Amino acid sequence: MRFRTRLSRTAPAVAAAATLLLAGSAAPAAIGAPVVAGPAGAAVGQATADSDDPVTHDENERVPEGAAWTEAYFPSSGGVELHADILRPAHLAPDARTPVILSVGPYFAHAGQTGPEGWDVVGPSARFRDFVDGADLMRHEYTFVMVDIRGFGGSTGCLDWTGPGEQADIGAAIEWSASQEWSTGDVGMYGKSYDAVTGLAGNNLDLEPLKAVVAQEPLWNMYNYLWSNEVARPNVTGTPNAYNSIATMPPMDGDDERYAANARYEDEHPECLSDNLADGNNPDLESEYWDARNLADDAVGTDTPLFVTQGFSEPNTKPEDMEIFLDNHTGVERGWLGPWDHVRGNDVVSDGRLAMGREGFFDEVMRFYDEFLKGETPGVEDPAYAIQDSTGAWRVQDTWPEADGSTVARLGKGSYVDDGGASSLAATGLTRAQVDGWDMEHAPTLAPRTRSFAAGASSSYLTYSTPVDSDVRITGTPSVAFRAGAAGEVMVRLWDVAPDGTATMFDENVALIERRGRVAFDLKSADWTLAEGHQLGVQIGTIESGGWLAEPSGNRISVSGARLSLDLQDPAGDVATPGEPAPYLERYRAGNTTTLTDVGEGTFDLGR
Q1: Which fold has domain 41-202+249-275?
Q2: The whole model's pTM is what?
């Protein structure tokens, strides 16, 4: 069983200036042809809102080879006007029909993704140039459309943090893309991070033209990026500030008058910036604001074919509420899951190794799109899920998680002093500039806090399983419940403990304890294998991590009746598939390993 905490708390004070205005209507406006207003004085090598005047790579190096670039404007809800950059195969006639792959998000401004990138000429965003070129999208005869979500690039309106306004924009972009004379009417979505979130939101809209979604390293519930069970993350104000900065990026000198006017929307609407900080500064998961942004719960009954990637050790868009979303989604699912960080399926690290460790990402993505957007039977049978666990080994599964059994471990009683090992911004090791630049693409690295824990330490206590008699995998979403003797905060961590006491922390989460009584919450989703002879350590105590802005109560908190619910899988049944360990796995282990003392024989069993 998975839990959510329902708690209340006065939110921390916030700074001024940010970007989120909750739009009124969630329903997209009727979508027709592009709104065309001839731009004044378009520069040489610049597209216009006239699809009969495309620009090629020979005219503008920012246009991918083999592509023809145009721009368009179309309406969304609340009077918002959306801007799109369109890349079509240059060898096709302007009205030749192709399927459309659509990306919607805040990172497609002509000047740059998260800030000016020093371009000399106006052109389409290079955000997914790797995909356009690497997948040979134009040769495969797809149209690629990049839409600025409200408040960004050449679109008007205020950022709505995947709320009703942005959901209306996503719906408008899907319907508009499907209705154009050059479209077959079949639309897929593609993205990573924020524009992967918009793909999940597109799935939830249940629109007929949307036939497939590829979402790499998304958020499954927007709440989890700023809060954890009513405990603030360090970026609770920094992320809104970061998106304010992106939203107010000035247009380029060569942008046409219409684009430039839309890009300066916030100049006459400063409430966009102030509302952004205020609206997200709400710790209550069940508030109206966060309920509208709970993508996992809203996925009930949806069936758009879905291809996702998720790093279990992700330090940025973490695997929280992923299992809830996938359980609620009823359609075809594909996925690459494993111990990597915030990377794309095709990314490589400095020594040339693939960041996820598996070859053929673009090939698999194109087979997925060809099947669901063109109706072509793939010549290769791809697995539903390709999963890399904590050993670095890859396996295939029909679904995730795929547990052989489950257990509810009874943990020992104990107490801790809620003194807060990381109770301020300074304790995170980050500067204010780093935090204020924290968007989904550029989360700073947090120094791990995995010091040794001696028996009897006042800030936490540990309970251990008996050594496992064969390899066992902890999969799915662990959850914990207990009775707390006082108000305060709590952190629960899971450790993989070797016979010599060497231990790696592989899962954690925190929660506010509003008052004495029962507390229950989920940890992050996991896929971690305990080797034969290893023990599971469960640490309960004060918040000892730079991943949250703790507000310690100073209370001694007793813990009783603690239960840890786990899904378990026997690795002996794994079906292997090619792939190498993700390079990040080694870094993660190095940064999250310590020595635990006085472990003992253990008090509970992980029997399957």
Answers
A1: Rossmann fold (3.40.50)
A2: 0.90
